[in-house]
Amino acid sequence: MTLLSRADESLLARWWWTVDRKLLFILLSLLSAGLILSFGASTPVAERLHLPIFYFAKRQLVFLLAGIAIMIGVSLLSPRMIRRTGIIMFFISLILVMLTLIMGAEYNGAKRWISLGSLSLQPSEFLKPSFIILSAWLCAGAMNDQSFPGRRIALGLFILSAGLLVAQPDMGQTVLLGLIWSMQLVLAGLPLFWIGLLILGGCAGLALAYLLIPHVTSRIDRFFNPASGDTYQIDTALNAFRAGGLFGRGPGEGAVKKVLPDAHTDYIFAVAGEEFGTFACLIILGLFSAIVLRSLMRLTEEDDPFTILAVSGLIALFGLQAMINIGVNLALLPAKGMTLPFISYGGSSMLALTWGMGMVLALTRQNRFERRSSLGPGVWT
């Protein structure tokens, strides 16, 4: 890359000198850490299922390489192309989420996956970043043209998306999507009255979920009163952190991955704590924090509404999902099956999140002429 001159007008050269290389390096570092943890955490799971010992690790390597290719490829796109692909992907994802309710594979009482031969696709993972792009476009349009009902259209699409996620059921993804969309509305200048109604609506939705959905009731009850149900998974995860101490028991020496069925997905942070210790966990937290802060810092010089709303939403998705996963591992939040971005095993999650961060890299590129010319005179170009 050092051979690329600033005078070079090729697409790759312009990308290299305008992309946030520090953010790109941090993202690649987190992806590398995830691959290392995946090789250690997934081997006992493969053995229990009578699969080749590195079955999940090799698949994760394929997902990672494909994800890096997607992230870099998407980061080459203009804001106009980001917007168009995001909108198209939203409607494709919406249709696929509908199909999961009809022909989706059921796992633990939920229909969230579509089987594609030896692979499984979770459409809701792609619905989240694509909805963020569509919502940012609609809200930005309303900010530029007061007569355009962008917020009302976004509300209708959110209700449709949330309804489909609840039907799977997947309350965690529904709450996450609702939080991010609400944040976008606040950034878009939503009046305080409507913000208050949003808060009341969110609280009412959570209350109804607690009263009407048994597994939500069970998880919240166990969080506030562990004696009310089985807390084996979280107790085991906490014991893993205690056993790891400051420096860990050593790579491959952990016990939690041998007894937790979801050690390579939902509880991979506990594996990191046991084998590599508290310091390693703090480094992982530092990488997540650096990604969020670095991305938000790039927005301080930005005045385009679509870019601000889209990047803020995508970074909120990345950061909140990490916070929820880590919070569950540390018993700070009720149990929820949500992956740790770039760390947990899972093809849909890896590809969707790398696509999302590719869009962040594209929208935060420091190329003002390209950004304005790609947008044209307004967000509708």
In short:
The chain is mainly alpha-helical and 381 residues long. 70% of the residues lie in helices and 3% in strands.
Low-confidence stretches: 368-381
Q: What shape does the CA trace take?
A: globular
Biggest sheet: strand arrangement = 1-2-3
The overall pLDDT, averaged over residues, is: 87
Element pattern in H and E: HHHHHEEEHHHHHHHHHHH
Structural commentary:
The protein is mainly alpha-helical. The protein has one domain. The protein contains 16 helices and three strands. A three-stranded antiparallel beta sheet has the order 1-2-3, covered by helices on one side. Helix 5 (about 80-105) runs parallel beside helix 7 (about 150-165). The chain is globular. The two termini are about 35 Å apart. Its EC number is 2.4.99.28. It holds the Pfam family FTSW_RODA_SPOVE. This is Probable peptidoglycan glycosyltransferase FtsW. It is found in: Cell membrane. InterPro entries: FtsW, FtsW/RodA.
